[in-house]
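In the design runs reported in the main text, the only information available to the sequence generator was the tokenized backbone. The following block is the verbatim input for one such run; it is reproduced so that readers can re-run the procedure and compare outputs position by position.
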């Protein structure tokens, strides 16, 4: 049994999902980010702009949690339409440093009809 406590990072109180989930949870030296989905992006229906924006948000959350894009272990990418795979990859490529994290990409319905979402796990 672990004696470690999880640390739940605070969500912006103005975020529409405040109170539902934490943006990040740290347990031991592992950081679990809540999925970032494109309804929060300024251009929510543009796959390239939304991908860039969400990966910027991922980077901010990781830095806030004491991690970084270079310490990402696993990414799950959710696409509403797998036809966006190439455009998403072109923006995604190179965002995580020299060693690309493990990744799974799934076509899926997403909250608020988002076109893309990123679920990231990293270490400290
Ligand atoms: C957007 C998100 N992370 C959720 O679970 O609704």
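Verbatim output:
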């Amino acid at each position: 049994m672990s004696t470690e406590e999880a640390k739940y990072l605070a969500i912006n109180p103005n975020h529409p999902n405040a109170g539902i989930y934490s943006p990040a949870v740290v347990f031991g030296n592992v950081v679990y980010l809540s999925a970032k989905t494109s309804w929060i992006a300024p251009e929510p229906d543009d796959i390239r702009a939304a991908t860039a924006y969400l990966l910027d948000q991922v980077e901010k959350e990781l830095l806030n949690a004491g991690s970084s894009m270079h310490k990402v272990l696993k990414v799950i990418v959710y696409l509403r339409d797998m036809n966006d795979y190439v455009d998403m990859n072109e923006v995604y490529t190179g965002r995580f440093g020299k060693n690309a994290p493990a990744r799974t990409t799934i076509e899926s319905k997403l909250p608020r009809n988002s076109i893309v979402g990123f679920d990231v796990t990293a270490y400290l």
